[in-house]
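Fold this sequence, please.
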Amino acid sequence: MVDQAMRQQLEKTCRELGVPCISVMQPIIDAMKIHLGQESDSRPGRQHALDDDYFERIGAMDYVLSHDDGQSDRDLESADVILVGVSRTSKTPTCIYLGNRGIKAANFPMVPGSPLPDALFEAKNPLVVGLTKDPRRLVEVRRQRLRLLNQDADTDYVDTELVTQEINDARRLFSKHGWPVINVSRRSIEETAATVIQLLKRRRDDVGAGE
């Protein structure tokens, strides 16, 4: 219990009733105060503070969910980042992680035979990042996905030669438009997101330096 007056009242009442009362967190807080040389700021509900950062994260998450997996190409100029890649390159979880950091992220899958929307190429504000993966690793991930869904594993979706072609086509598109590329083969979601954040910061710094 963070509120000191309430905690003292609770302890007093417990003593009167003969009920054991143990402060679980106080010894840890006292040790940290001594180690850090700082006083604790006992304010209830700080982890749930409805401040500007909180509403920024909520707004970003709402944007991510409404622009996931190519669901919408509207309002792309409001995006901070747009991730593009073939199926199973961790676009959605990376966007969710970014959204939790207050970054508006959209993503579009590259599907053979289905062109990407014109709005993606026309957007000027967002940083577009291409995600790629080792073809063999990608086939393994896709096969596992099909097994989980109890679907036929003998499809073009997991054909090594066709998957390699998908990756090569994606790389050519990324190169054509000058989009930075992240190979996610051996990266965690957090590592991929961290790299995206670094690219975004670098881009903003470059824009700021040019003004």
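Residues 4-48 form one domain. The longest strand covers residues 81-86.
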